[in-house]
């Protein structure tokens, strides 16, 4: 993602002129926007792209230029790569626009916003079984900021405890699975905590296996981060088993290691889809939980939440008391200014949907994900790695289960609790038999060919130890309807079959190599890695070095 470099237009132009296709168009000024047809009286305007224009243009012209360029982006509706939600009802859009100009940092000036923030924290505390009246938390710009705050609180508590005991605070470490999202690794590297990445295995559902994780824990472990909803496959890492093993560890050694749950997606999935599942503050070892309001909290990008079990989990020296905008305010965040609108949007969703509404939406997401997963497996071309479509084995016991088994009955498709738990995510790859039969067909071509039809479905490698396995992944969000699933499936199978039946198509794809290079300019402004840079050896997550 976008760490952008300054662009020297002269070199860009030289490169553009040399490009065999661009050469065919005789345009001298590629560093100037041309063609604001919406403002007909500014036809001869000159708006440079890479330095601030000396004089501006009318708002109409500026709007048209940028609006048209934005149309070259992918369609958010067809973006199956992201967990971040892209649709809200009209009234939410209106409310958010009405509050677009409010800075959340101005606590004294906007007391109603503050009250709404407090209510959101309270509702989340309730949803996550926090002890009554004790949880404390804050909105953030996303789970990444929330994870930084959660990690820092654990680090500081560990340091304070070690100092009290007269022990060294030199070498803190943190334990999480190699499947971790980049935010966890960023925390470790930016805040100088050794990241102990637990390798993932197929048997361990491609995520943290607590029996392996416990071997990485020692007196310098500030905490274990358990991910509720692995970004690769949607599997829930078992929080309660991790807690049990850490309880045993404490009994043996006297060392108390806390758990932070990264519920970026799962924090808004598990409580509604699986209300009796234990993963949150009802497990005493869970000290803090983060979630992304902009994922299954159903708000647009820009909102996260973190809650701590109680104030004792939040060392006093991390909380800042501010006395300058009219009153005394307390904060524990990385950003000062931030938009209020996403918080208002979250409160809108909570009031509008209620528990039943959120439950209805997540059940529908899971049902659509199962529909897709089952169809992919039935095609015979694909193996599905996510498992929310697999009926729960526990029904094999008991009378009902035995009866179901006898008649080969399939559990109620509307009941998420009859299936394995997880996020509404479908991760899949070519079946082994398919690979044997069509060794020349590359899985990444599916991504490219789907993109030609507008669908955005990423193809990428699993974490280290399994990094030779490539997966395609579709995240089923509220706007991914049954109709869309049906269409993407039809395209997916048609593409696969055309690659199978036609070696010429394969040849073409091999030459094309999946590079859709509408993105030349974006690439031009990208930071590149110097050849002699050394890759730090302790990094093994999907956060590839640039
Ligand atoms: C998305 C995600 C994050 C990062 O969250 P942002 O809200 O995008 O900052 C962290 N952990 C997991 C498991 C995620 O899925």
TrEMBL record:
Task: Please indicate if the UniProt record lists Lyase as a keyword.
Answer: yes
Residue numbers bearing the N6-(pyridoxal phosphate)lysine modification: 295
Q: Which reaction does it catalyse?
A: L-glutamate + H(+) = 4-aminobutanoate + CO2
* InterPro entries found in the cross-reference section: Glutamate_decarboxylase, PyrdxlP-dep_de-COase, PyrdxlP-dep_Trfase, PyrdxlP-dep_Trfase_major
Annotated GO MF terms: glutamate decarboxylase activity; pyridoxal phosphate binding
Q: What keywords are assigned to this protein?
A: Decarboxylase, Lyase, Pyridoxal phosphate
Query: Where are the annotated coiled coils located?
Result: none
Q: Name one GO biological process term.
A: L-glutamate catabolic process
Q: Which cofactor does it need?
A: pyridoxal 5'-phosphate
Cite a GO CC annotation.
Answer: cytosol
Gene3D superfamilies named in the record? 3.90.1150.160, 4.10.280.50, Type I PLP-dependent aspartate aminotransferase-like (Major domain)
Q: Please give one Pfam family short name.
A: Pyridoxal_deC
EC identifiers of the protein: 4.1.1.15
Q: Which protein family is it in?
A: Belongs to the group II decarboxylase family.
What's the protein called, per UniProt? Glutamate decarboxylase
């Amino acid at each position: 993602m976008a760490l952008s470099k300054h662009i020297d237009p002269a070199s860009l132009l030289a490169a553009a002129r040399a490009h065999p296709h661009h050469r065919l168009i005789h345009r001298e000024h590629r560093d100037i926007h041309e063609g604001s047809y919406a403002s007909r009286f500014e036809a001869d305007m000159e708006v440079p792209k890479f330095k601030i224009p000396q004089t501006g243009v009318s708002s109409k012209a500026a709007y048209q230029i940028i609006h048209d360029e934005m149309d070259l982006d992918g369609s958010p509706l067809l973006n199956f790569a992201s967990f971040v939600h892209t649709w809200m009802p009209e009234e939410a859009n209106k409310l958010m626009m009405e509050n677009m100009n409010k800075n959340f940092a101005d606590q004294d000036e906007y007391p109603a916003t503050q009250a709404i923030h407090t209510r959101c924290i309270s509702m989340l505390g309730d949803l996550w079984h926090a002890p009554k009246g004790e949880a404390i938390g804050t909105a953030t710009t996303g789970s990444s900021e929330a994870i930084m705050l959660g990690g820092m609180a654990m680090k500081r508590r560990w340091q304070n405890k070690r100092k009290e005991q007269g022990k060294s605070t030199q070498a803190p470490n943190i334990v999480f699975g190699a499947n971790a999202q980049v935010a966890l690794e960023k925390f470790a590297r930016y805040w100088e905590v050794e990241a102990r990445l637990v390798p993932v295995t197929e048997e361990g559902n491609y995520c943290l296996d607590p029996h392996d994780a416990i071997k990485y824990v020692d007196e310098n472990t500030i905490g274990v981060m358990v991910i509720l909803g692995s970004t690769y496959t949607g599997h829930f890492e078992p929080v309660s088993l991790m807690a049990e093993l850490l309880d045993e560890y404490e009994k043996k050694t006297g060392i108390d290691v806390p758990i932070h749950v990264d519920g970026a997606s799962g924090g808004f999935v598990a409580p509604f889809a699986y209300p009796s599942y234990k993963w949150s503050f009802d497990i005493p070892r869970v000290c803090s939980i983060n979630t992304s309001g902009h994922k299954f909290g159903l708000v647009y990008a820009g909102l996260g939440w973190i809650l701590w079990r109680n104030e004792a989990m939040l060392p006093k020296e991390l909380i800042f008391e501010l006395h300058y905008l009219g009153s005394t305010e307390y904060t524990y965040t990385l950003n000062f200014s931030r938009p209020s609108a996403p918080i208002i949007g979250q409160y809108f969703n909570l009031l509008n949907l209620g528990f039943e509404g959120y439950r209805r939406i997540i059940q529908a997401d899971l049902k659509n994900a199962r529909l897709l997963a089952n169809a992919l497996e039935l095609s015979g071309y694909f193996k599905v790695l996510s498992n929310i479509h697999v009926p729960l084995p526990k029904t094999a016991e008991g009378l009902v289960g035995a009866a179901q088994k006898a008649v080969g009955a399939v559990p109620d498709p509307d009941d998420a609790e009859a299936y394995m738990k997880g996020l509404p995510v479908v991760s899949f790859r070519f079946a082994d038999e398919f690979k044997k039969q069509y060794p020349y067909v590359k899985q990444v071509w599916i991504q490219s060919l789907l993109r030609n039809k507008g669908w955005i479905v990423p193809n990428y490698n699993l974490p280290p130890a399994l990094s030779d396995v490539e997966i395609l992944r579709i995240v089923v969000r509220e706007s991914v309807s049954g109709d869309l699933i049906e269409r993407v499936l039809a395209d997916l199978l048609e593409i696969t079959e055309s690659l199978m039946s036609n070696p010429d198509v394969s040849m073409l794809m091999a030459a094309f190599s999946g590079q859709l290079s509408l993105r030349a300019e974006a690439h031009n402004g990208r930071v590149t890695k110097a050849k002699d840079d050394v890759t730090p050896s302790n990094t093994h997550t999907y956060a590839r070095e640039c």
